[in-house]
Design brief:
Layout (H helix, E strand, L loop, with lengths): L2 E10 L3 E5 L18 E2 L5 E5 L5 E10 L11 E7 L5 E6 L6 E4 L5 E8 L1 H6 L1 H7 L5 E8 L6 E4 L3 H9 L4
Parallel strand pairs: 5-10
Antiparallel strand pairs: 1-5, 2-4, 2-7, 3-4, 6-9, 6-11, 7-8, 9-10
């Protein structure tokens, strides 16, 4: 049974948010070292996460699992990456804002699955979203203990995700 540690709104700017344990904040520079372009996991203890919406509010759920959760077909985009916290404290951080969620996750090796829905629609309706306070794109982060393994693109359907996956591995 998953343990939901956050389920709510998240303000994004520049189409990004972060997960950090300790004081390190990730940057997009690590994208060249990966296969996927949505969940950059190259900074120790941190994740750089890309959204379809440039600026506004998205929906986010963060879950901890004891075992790998089954894949859910409703998600249009699914990527996975290795994650190793550098401290037991874990925070979900909007760009240049205070944490929306702080929790504890033991230091060890984890797999993180990042799922997305509505990335292209959010990009196309951004001005409407900002004016009306709509939430169009939604995201799910799932963590479970697992040995390190390379990141991977599990499912890709949107133009937004295709662009970012195309940026991965460049340079």
């Amino acid at each position: 049974m998953p343990r939901t540690v956050y389920d709510g709104d998240l303000w994004v700017h520049y189409g990004q948010f972060y997960v950090a344990s300790g004081t390190e904040y990730p940057d997009l520079g690590g994208i060249a070292e990966q296969r996927n372009g949505l969940c950059i996991a190259t900074t120790p203890g941190a994740l750089f996460l890309v959204t379809g919406l440039h600026t506004g509010t998205v929906g986010l759920t963060v879950e901890f699992h004891d075992t790998p959760p089954p894949l859910d077909d409703r998600w249009e985009e699914i990527v996975e990456a290795p994650f190793r916290p550098t401290s037991p404290k874990l925070a979900v951080l909007p760009w240049a804002e205070q944490a929306v969620c702080e929790t504890e996750l033991g230091v060890g090796d984890y797999r993180v699955r990042y799922c997305a829905l509505g990335m292209d629609e959010a990009r196309e309706r951004e001005s409407e979203i900002l004016k009306g306070g709509l939430i169009v794109d939604r995201y799910l982060l799932q963590f479970w203990a697992a040995p390190p393994a390379p990141d991977e693109v599990v499912r890709q359907t949107s133009r937004s995700a295709a662009y970012w996956h195309g940026e991965a591995g460049k340079h």
